[in-house]
Amino acid sequence: MLRDPVTATDNGGDPITLDHLMGEGEWKSASDQAENIPEGVLELIKEKARVAFCEMRPAGPLQPYDEILQGPTEPFVAFVERLTAAIEQQVARVGAREEVLEEMAMRNANEESREAILRIPKAPGEHPTLDEMLKAVSAMAANTRAQTLQRKKPAVPKVAAATHQERTPNQPRPVKKTPIDRPCFLCGQKGHWSSQCPKRAEFNAFLKKGGGGMEGTSNAQKN
């Protein structure tokens, strides 16, 4: 880096030092780094940091990436993050990592995620990208949650629904019975109320006399 004129000095012409590279001393400020350290130097720092991170090894035994499986309730995103970290540490060729990640994400996904991935429309011989997998699994998970909430909603009792039902403008009002429909309780004939019955006077006279042969007495007793 110091041999390359593009990366040997900062924008002020001073030689690049460890303080430049590590963000220490007068280079702790991110704004100073962005303003005075050449872009080529910053890109080189980023690449070296990435390589160092990928070469880190966990304290315990290293799990092969092809043995990393998505848990039954593990979010697909969390599974992909675990898989990505393992592949970056175990696959040396950077250009091959994306292809390996897509293959392992589809192969080692749980049943629900794999079902969503297999529904992605693809031509024969084509495989879904990681972005397409993430979107498909996320959409299926959202749909499953919505269906679960719908099933948990309490049903409205039919009696309560009928009680609160409002009459529409065109709905006919309840039909009230008229003298034509209901028989007179004095004579048993339809077409008039008992107060208008032709035998009303005859019935009243019968009551005053305390009973005795009146035509229609049997009908009056029945009603």
From TrEMBL:
Coiled coil: none annotated. Keywords: Lipoprotein, Metal-binding, Myristate, Zinc, Zinc-finger. One of its GO terms (biological process) is viral process. SMART domains: ZnF_C2HC. Transmembrane segments: none annotated. The keyword Ribosomal protein does not apply. It comes from the Eukaryota. Residues 184-199 form the CCHC-type domain. The keyword Lipoprotein applies. PROSITE patterns: ZF_CCHC. One of its GO terms (molecular function) is nucleic acid binding. This is CCHC-type domain-containing protein. It comes from Zosterops borbonicus.
